[in-house]
Amino acid sequence: MPEPISPRDRLIVALDMASTDEAERLIARIGDAASFYKIGYRLGYAGGLALAERLVRDGHKVFLDLKLHDIGNTVEEGVQSLAGIGATFLTVHAYPQTMRAAAAGRDKAGTGLKILGVTVLTSYDDADAREAGYASSVADLVAARAAAAGAIGIDGIVCSAAEAPQVRAILGPDRLIVTPGIRPAGAEIGDQKRVVTPAEAMRAGVDHVVVGRPITGAADPRDVARRIVDEMAAAL
Ligand code: C5P
């Protein structure tokens, strides 16, 4: 069985802001209520990788949500460079060739970086998949890519809580499931179409929840982060 994860380490706060100054102000306000931060395209391309190094140095965990996808050699070398930052998670699109290359880069770097596969973006429905040239439904693509991720030795999958039970059945207990689209009861849902609460995510077998605007836009981000952690602790 995998190592138990503390409720606080299960919360990943998405730093979807435009500047590292803004991100650092938020992190200071959250204090010890959270320990894990996600950096995506917006902040990553605006000084976020240097911020990631500072966060790791300060004892935080970092999720680099850069969703890599390129020829194998480029992915493998990119993963090796990113591994030097000391991040905990890095996303790649769950194409078998890309996942194999990412796993090779991870193993060569040996820093403990874990690779997460993004099966099918949650903004895609069956019509979008058809338009992109796929003959399979989104559900079938998710299942096929999760199975490939497991066989290749990817460390986990990013998926919706709705997909988590299906993905867990494919991956078994030893891989991680990381889920965005989380809203504490009563929060604005924003542009997320299907949302679940932190407690529901735990019951669906999710290991880590990614929460952005309910924390980053809150009057008291520390309090919201605390409540989410407490809600997960109670559900476990
Ligand atoms: O603000 P919110 O809680 O909706 O932020 C969710 C975070 O998770 C954002 O960084 C978003 O890019 C990311 N994400 C998502 N859905 C996915 C994959 C990532 O919302 N399928």
UniProtKB/TrEMBL annotation:
The keyword Lyase applies. It comes from the Bacteria. Coiled coil: none annotated. Residues 10-228 form the Orotidine 5'-phosphate decarboxylase domain. Its EC number is 4.1.1.23. It is an enzyme of class 4 (lyase). GO terms for molecular function: orotidine-5'-phosphate decarboxylase activity. It catalyses: orotidine 5'-phosphate + H(+) = UMP + CO2. Signal peptide: none annotated. It holds the Pfam family OMPdecase. Substrate binds at residues 16, 38, 65-74, 122, 183, 192, 212-213. The keyword Lyase applies. InterPro entries: Aldolase_TIM (IPR013785), OMPdecase (IPR014732), OMPdecase_AS (IPR018089), OMPdecase_bac (IPR047596), OMPdeCOase_dom (IPR001754), RibuloseP-bd_barrel (IPR011060). Pathway: Pyrimidine metabolism; UMP biosynthesis via de novo pathway; UMP from orotate: step 2/2. GO terms for biological process: 'de novo' pyrimidine nucleobase biosynthetic process; 'de novo' UMP biosynthetic process. SUPFAM superfamilies: Ribulose-phoshate binding barrel. Catalyzes the decarboxylation of orotidine 5'-monophosphate (OMP) to uridine 5'-monophosphate (UMP). Homodimer. PANTHER family: OROTIDINE 5'-PHOSPHATE DECARBOXYLASE. Belongs to the OMP decarboxylase family. Type 1 subfamily. HAMAP family: OMPdecase_type1_B. This is Orotidine 5'-phosphate decarboxylase. It comes from Methylobacterium aquaticum.
